[in-house]
Amino acid sequence: MPVSDSIEFYDYQPPNDNCRLAVSYLRLPPVDWGKLPLSNLVKNAFEGDERDIFHRGNIVEKQLSHLEYAWQEIRFNEPNEHREAISRLCVARGSGIQALITTDFWPEDARKATAVWNTVLETLILGRRIDNPLAGPEMH
């Protein structure tokens, strides 16, 4: 479900991958976004989903000092592989940035994918420029 300008990470080289994580973002105009709950954006994103969804998890919301996010998991019948697949979608907002984070994986990879998902959400920072991503943020 990610857009074409997203960054995608795979566990193996496609088409032999089992898990995918994608991230995209947009800069928000300086208005009060508090009246647009992220849970509504997550719900609306999956409402237009054309996959054969048979389970929708609860929407999880988190408010931190520097950002907020909401995410949901769905389970669906993958039409090409003819088996169950799992997808998660998160919308995060902070520092004038809105991020869309998605992941897709097979149920047997849930443990690995969940560990990655949790790490991404626990370490998420928006609106901070890092000149050299290989070196990490500069400490002042």
Search tags:
seven-stranded antiparallel beta sheet; globular; alpha+beta; 7 strands; 140 residues
Describe the structure.
- This protein is of the alpha+beta class.
- The longest helix is centred in the C-terminal third of the chain and has 14 residues, at 110-123.
- The chain is 17% helix and 39% strand.
- Strands 1, 2, 3, 4, 5, 6 and 7 form a 7-stranded antiparallel β-sheet that branches.
- The protein contains 2 helices and 7 strands; from the N terminus they run ββαβββββα.
- The mean pLDDT is 89.
In short:
β5 and β6 form a beta hairpin.
- Helix-and-strand structural type: alpha+beta
**Strand residue content:** 35-45%
Global Rg: 16 Å
Output mean pLDDT: 89
Number of helices: 2
- What's the story with the biggest beta sheet? 7 strands, antiparallel
Distance between the termini: 38 Å
Low-confidence regions:
none
N to C succession of SSEs: EEHEEEEEH
Helix fraction, binned, reads 10-25%
Shape: globular
- The tally of strands reads 7
Task: Give the SSE map.
Blueprint: E1 7-10, E2 19-27, H1 38-47, E3 52-56, E4 60-63, E5 68-78, E6 83-94, E7 97-105, H2 110-123
Antiparallel strand pairs: 1-2, 2-7, 3-5, 4-5, 5-6, 6-7
